[in-house]
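Cross-posting from the modeling subforum.

Setting up a comparison between two proteins and wanted a second pair of eyes on the formatting. Protein 1 (sequence, then C-alpha cells):
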Amino acid sequence: MVSIYDDVEILGLVFHGLKDIQEHVKMSLYRSYLPGLADARDNDGCNVYVGELWMPYPCFDASDYATENMSYQNFVFRNRPITEDDLKALSDLPTFGNEYRVYERVPAEMRPLVYYEGDGQTMLVAK
C-alpha cells in the first residue's frame, strides 16, 4: 500500500501519484453486470499503456444518484497498447470486496496492477 501522492515506478516509467496514473489511461471499461464497450483514448507518445476497469460506488436513493461521483478503480499496465482482452482478463480476476483485484496471488501475467478504492489516501500496487 502506498500513498496516492507517492511516485511509483511501473515498467520503467515513474508515475507521480494516482492522478498521473489516471491521466495515462488509454482504455477504460465500466464494470457492470452487462457486457460493456471499452472507451479507447489516443496515445500520448508514452511507452507504458494503462487500462482501467472501474465501477461507480453503489447508489441507494435519489440523493446518492445526484451526488455520488466516486468509483472503484483497477489499473493494468502494459509495454504495448492495451486491448479489450486485457480489460476482460482484468475483469475476470476474482473480486475481493469493493471490486479490488489486487491480491497476494494475482497471476504474474496480469501484473503490474494498481487498485484505488475511490476515497482515502492509499492505493494497492502489485508489481
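Protein 2 (same layout):
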Amino acid sequence: MNNARIAVVGAGKTGRGFIGRLLAEAGEPVRYIDKNAGLVRDMQEAGQFTVHFFGGKREDFVVDNFTVTTWEDADLTGIELILVAVGGTNLPDVGKALAERLPEDSSVRIITCENASHPSETVKKAMGRPDMPVSEATVFCTTIEAEGLDIRSENYPKLQCSAEQLQGYVPPVTGITPVDGFGNFLTRKLFTYNAASCIIAYLGWRKGYTSYGEAANDPEILAKLDANYAVTNRVLCRVFGYTEEDQAQFALLSREKFTNREIADTIERNAREPHRKLGPEERIIGPMKLIAEQGEDVSVLVETAAAMLLYDSDRETKWKELRAAHTDEELLESIAGLPENDPLSRRIVEKAAELRGRA
C-alpha cells in the first residue's frame, strides 16, 4: 500500500482522467477504490495510464503513482481526504461502504465529484452520519475513454468545491479549490453550462445530429445558444451580483468547450435522462423561472423544454414509459413542478405541439 493520504472512489473517466491527473500533478499518490474487479485488475497489471489532451493543448501526462483495489480489499488507513467520483445512482452504495470502513470518530473529509442533486446529503444519509463533513464539487472537465486505460481530456486545472461543507479543512492539493458561497456558484454553473448543454443536445437531436460538436456549431443552434447566453448573463449579474466581465468570461469558457469539435461527444450522452434534467430547480426550468421573473426572454429555454418532451431514444426506457403514460401537461406538473395553468407550462406545451407538427 502506498503512503497516500487521498483516496479516490471510482476509477472511471473522471476519477482517472481528471481527479487522478490533478492529484498526480500535485505529486500526491492516489489510493483508488472501484467496484469493477476487471478494471481494478487491468489497472494493477498496467501500473499506469496516460491522459491525452484535446487539441494537443499540452503534452500527454502519465499517472503511475497509485494503488487500486475493490471494496473487499479497501484500506483507508492514513487517508485524510476521500474524493467520490461515481455516478449519482451509485452514491448510496458508496456511503454504505464508507460507513462500514470508517470509525465513528474519523476525521476524514469527503468530497463528492458528481454533478448530481445534493450528492453530499445522499452520502451522509447512506452513511447514517448527518454530521460527517461531506463537501460537494462541480466537475467542469470533460473526459472520455481512449485506448486501453488511457483517457482523453480537457486541460482543466481546478476542482471547485464547497468551502463551508469542508468546515475549515483545506485540501493539500492546489487544484482542489474550496469556494465560498458554493450554492450560488453551483446555480451559476447549472444555469450557464448545463443549460447550454441541453440547448445543444435537444435542439441538435431535433435537427438529426448525433455528434455533439457538430450540433453546437450549427448556425441556427449557435445563434439561439448565444441569445440565451446573453439573457442568462444579464440576469445572473443582476440577481447574484457578478460583474458583466466575469460572467461573460464564464459563459465564453462554456461556449468554447461545447463548440470544440475535438471533444468527441454525442448527442445521446448529453440528452440522457430528460426526466431528471426537467426538474423544477434543474438546468432548464430553474433558469427559465428566474429569467421570466426578471422579465427577460425565455423563448430558447421554452423551445428546449418542448424538445425534451419530444425526445425519444431506445436507451431511455424510463422516459419512454413516462411519456406513454402522461400528457405534456402532466409531465410538466409532476416532473418540472409547473401547474397546467402556469404561463410557462402553457408556452412549453404550445411549442411542443408546434414541433410535433413539423415532424
